[in-house]
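pinned: reference chain
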Amino acid sequence: MSPRLTPGRVIELLENGFPLFKDELLRNYAKLGKHHFIIEEYHNGKWLAEPIRTLDGIWGKVAQTYFPTLVRYIDEALPGCKMISFSELLPGAVIKPHNGADFGMVVKILSRREDWPFERLDTYFSGRIYEVLRFHLCLFSPSRDFAVLGLRSGDRQLTWKEGKCVYFDDSKTHEAWNLTDSPRLVLIGDFLKADFADMD
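pinned: its C-alpha cells
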C-alpha cells in the first residue's frame, strides 16, 4: 500500500463505495449469526460482531457468499485493508474503555474456539501487535446525539450517520455506548498505522 495513504482518502473511498454495496450489506446481514463479541470483559453483553475478513486481509467464505460486491470493491479500491467485520451495538450496549494494541494476539488465540462465527479462519495477523486505524462506515444509526450514542477516543467524540465514515486510533483507549432504543450498525475496516505517512 502507498505510504502516502491518508485517513481522508480511506474515508472517501469507503463512502464512495457505500451506494454500490449498501443494499447487499443490509439484506444479507440479517442472515448472519450475530455473535456476541468474543472478548466478553470488554462489554455488557450487547455488542455483536461478525468478522468477514481476517486480520491478515483474507476474505472468509461468508463474505464471498453473501457480499460479493463489497469483496470486489475492497479488493480493487482498498486492497491493504486488514480485518473487516460488522459491529452492532444493541439498545443499552456499553463497551468499556479498552485499547486494541494486543488485539491481534488475543483474537489469534480466542478465534480457535469451535463457536467462532461461521468457520474457523486459518489465517491470522502474524505480528504480536495489531495497531490500526479503525474506520466505521455507518449502515444505520438511530441518533447523532453523543450523550446517548457515541464513541470516545481520547479527546475525540464520534457519532455516526448513515453512509458516512469516521475513524479512530484503535491502539488508544476508547469506549462506546448506545443508550437509545434502536441498534447501531457499522462496517469496520482496519488499516495498519504503519501504512499511513503521518503515523508514528
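why pinned: The chain has four helices and nine strands. The longest strand covers residues 132-140.
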